[in-house]
Amino acid sequence: MNEKKRSLLQNKGVQSLLASLLCILAGLLIGYLVLLIINPAGAWEAIVTIVENFLYYPSPQAQIRYFGNTLVKTAPLLMCSLSVLFAYKVGLFNIGAAGQYVIGAGACLYCALAWQMPWFVCMLAAVAAGAVLGAISGALKAYRNVNEVISCIMLNWISLYAVNVLLSQVKETASPYTLTLSSTNPGALLPSLGLGDLFQNNRYVTLAIPLTVLVAAAIWVLLEKTKLGYELKATGFNKYAAQYCGMKEKRNIILTMVIAGGLAGLGAAALYLTGFEQWQTTHSSIPSMGFNGIAAAFLGGLNPIGSIFASYFIQHITNGGAYVDKTMYSAQISDLISSLIIYLCGFVLFFKSLLDRRLARQAERAAARAKAEKGGESK
Amino acid sequence: MEQPYAIEMLHITKRFPGIVANDNITLRLRKGEIHALLGENGAGKSTLMSVLFGLYQPEEGAIKKDGREVRIKDPNDANDLGIGMVHQHFKLVECFTVLDNIILGVEPCRHGFLQKADARKKVLDLSEKYGLKVDPDALVEDITVGMQQRTEILKMLYRDNEILIFDEPTAVLTPQEIDELMEIMRGLAAEGKSILFISHKLNEIMEVADRCTVLRKGRYVGTVEVKDTTKEELSRMMVGRNVEFVVHKEPAVPKEVLLEVEGLTVASKLHSNNAVRNVSFSVRAGEIVCIAGIDGNGQTELVYGLTGLEPVKEGKILLKGADITRAPIRQRSTGGMSHIPEDRHKHGLVLDYTLEDNMVLQRYFEPEFVTSAGFLKRRAIRAYALRLIEQYDVRSGQGPVTIARSMSGGNQQKAIVAREIDKNPDLLVAVQPTRGLDVGAIEYIHRQIVAQRDAGKGVLLVSLELDEVMALSDRILVMYEGEIVGELDPKTTTVEEMGLYMAGAKRKGA
Amino acid sequence: MMLLIQYTLIFSSVLILVALGGCFSEHSGVINIGLEGIMVMGALGGALMMKLLPAGTAAPVMILLVVLAACALGAVYSLLLAVAAIHFKADQTLVGTAMNLLGTAAATVFVKAMNTAADVNNVSSIIQYIDAKRSFLVYINGFEFNWFMAITVLALVCSWVVLYRTRFGLRLMACGEHPQAADSVGINVYKMRYAGVLISGVLGGLGGIVYITAGVSEWMFENGVAGFGFLSLAVMIFGQWKPARIALAALLFGFFRALGNVYTGFDLLSSLNLPSALYNMLPYLVSLVVLAFTSQKSRAPKAEGIPYDKGLR
Predict the structure, then answer these.
(1) pLDDT tens per residue across span A53-88
(2) For an interface test with A, which of B304, B340, B350 has the most A Cβ atoms less than 10 Å from its Cβ?
(3) pTM of this prediction?
(4) Domain of A204: which CATH number?
(5) B354 forms bridges with which residues in the sheet?
(6) What is the distance in angstroms between the Cα of A310 and the nearest Cα belonging to chain C?
């Protein structure tokens, strides 16, 4: 192996990319095997359908329109994945993104439907609600030594039931769904900025999409370029060292969870304020958006920019799952694939260290050979 | 008549990626002797013992037991051959009782159910026979370090081990406890047990060992009869040149008081009583004050209280006249206190950060390194790190962008020393600054500390190494059970006298 | 009132079983966040067995086979955690989370495929077991005694004996507290950790089948087990990783959960006219508050969550 190729493989970014692609491939492969077991006849067709997603439609217009739909749901997923990623960089596992997302949905919908607020107020309310929930986990961790994973899990369920109660007051009389924004308060719908027209009049394509990408970039800058990022990461890597050099590690833990919670809350606003979905007040399980955020964060190599692509990919196959032949398979097959991908992400670290060790051994051997050759020449 | 060999390790070679930890080492242990294994940190002593104990497999060489070649694949094999080991860091489960720890791995059982009654009797008999006093029902977390060590020894005896390895057993003991241990070791040898005694302390080897094998940088240097050699010769074999046990320094010229501590009391995290009790002292500019004592007598907590890592319960701390008793850590640091922490991995470094990011750990918030908008000035950080690396000779694979974790312990410590000294503090608090370093790095750090003093700074040094205390300090304060029990002058005192204070056998009003 | 006791007991049984599962896993040194997914898998195994067995199967045979099926599937599924955490040093929280999602997704896909294969128009993820469930019940003066309660008590006693009175228990706990010490006396840490995780799979799977037969006679697998695995983790922490205390904690949490099912039967509570979601929320709220006051000095196994590497000592 030549020098250039080796140094390329040693690059952490390249390694992450490779590892992620490997996870995706393995996930799809196992998904395909599952399909084969269930019904061999349509398995290949189904897996192609999942990967194709909107390309399933024959006309380009429809393709673009449904591409828009995938993007609409990518925006909240990206926010949830940033929420998970941000906390993880500071050494916290924010399994509570799911609950922060739920409470954000509750806050923005209630503001929009009960109080007739304009969209930006609703959005801020969602961010604030998520942030408060995050702050609770952070404070419990910092002051009461409660493991954030456990407190987040409890808060996920608490917020689910709380939001169900809250939004029952603004639901349609005949169904468990909340009132639509377009009929009740069009002012709460996110502005389209003309983006909808680009996607064949898909009115759900709004400001939310560019906004979330900008937020991802901002998170990257915050983590890599600023003093705050330096402090937060130091706290995450080694909280004792952070304390030793005078960083306020308790404040940093809470601050991190506040930001992470706010991000997840913003994600909820980015979906529910488009009018794309209504909240179902009889939800008895937590929406998977927050958990898929964990998948996207790890699949994206824990890099905010990687998250953008990873979120899109996860949402792409999730949407694709809706198109599989229902007489043979269920839509949950894409949930299965994305959860497999999360599982496989657990092996990424091992994969990377394996790669590093191999490269180190090769480099050593190459160096030894070079030395031997040199020795031969001098004699 | 020569006794036969109990264990022979012949031409052992063990390689790790990038390093030969043991290079063709031969060690022969006679039946019933106490055989010392001497070498610096990193000389390959631990690796060799791990090979003997079955934790590593050697690439080359053979092991013979009673003249017959054996293969030791894991600790079970070692145990079957009667080899036992007291590790430097005790391998005891803290929330188990002494008895449970002793029987763990060789539990007497009927149908899988524990039968502890017989085990208890055997333990009590052994403890009587060898004078190893323990309480079998006490939890390990509640007993003293000395009793924990006796538990480890009983673990070996319970397994009827014939070959006993002691890995740096005296590091955590008081001089008096060390004497007791030596007595126990002699007793064991007299009963026919063969003992391997790993140490880098020459006095102890001279006192107790029959023969001594010396390792240096992974290589075998030689084996000598202890009664035919001298300390000086052993140390020459160990480091490969004559070592200066003395640090050259001029007499101190103490000036104004920098640090004043009055009635300091710090609560303990482990026990209900206080770890530091009503301690008062001062440090002047231009002197090195040394806190001596056995590990765990409140030194750590005293430093935590001074530097702000733990809250102070009572008392007062004045730095340059300003009250900093309740001041946050950052304020103490910017106010002129530098701190070389006891545990460089826990406190001193963010191991996953680069070297340059670690170099600015105490200064990243200063305008030199950050814009008013909160963005880091990467170029300034790089330049600063390069200067420190150059000036303090910190060596690493990729310079400023090396991940701190991948650096050697000595260079990690040098980086911390560079960072803390270059902050230009008035008071330097250094806790065990040379722990686990090789002789070259130790000399370097000692010179830096003396240079700080000569530049008119105050130095508070906490050390467990008596040689270091005697060589560096201008004044010695001995801590025992959270109190300062004596103030000594290094020019007039002896190690023996200091030992009495450290063991609590002697005290005077400080 | 009788109903409240009955529900409290059956929900407590679930919590005890699953929390004991978590307890074994954590004592061996592996954090098991994936209990939720393991429960789903156990529930699936048990439900399938109930569906498959012919209607007239004798009660003891039925009980035995259903329990075996649930335990077996739970144990097999827990291998996912064991392999990743023990051999590949994966982040245990991440893997556990993945297992929770995977459990529900896989069960749903499977049950739907099965239902659709039987009837093209049936795309639900529901398995019914009304008849089979009767085998588990014995009526004593209006009190619905469930054989699972007896099994739980048995499991509780066994767990205590195994942990504190056997060689296996002593070695298991040594691996969770100080794996290096265990290794140095010749205990195979990897093997013990596999054992710990597998036991948690067995108990978690058993808990799963108990949960879906408590109070209902059909189960929609899309819903997973509604957070009961997580609640069990809280019970385990509150119980300080000790079987007897876990049982007490489980009774407390089970009581609050039972209130949600039967509060309409109490005049006082139903007159308050609170939404039912509030009762569902109660156990989580209680556990959060309880944890906030008990986590300061936790007796968690010291080495839990840290992958064991033979090379690092």
Answers:
(1) 888 788 888 888 889 999 999 999 999 999 999 999
(2) B350
(3) 0.85
(4) 1.10.3470
(5) B403
(6) 16
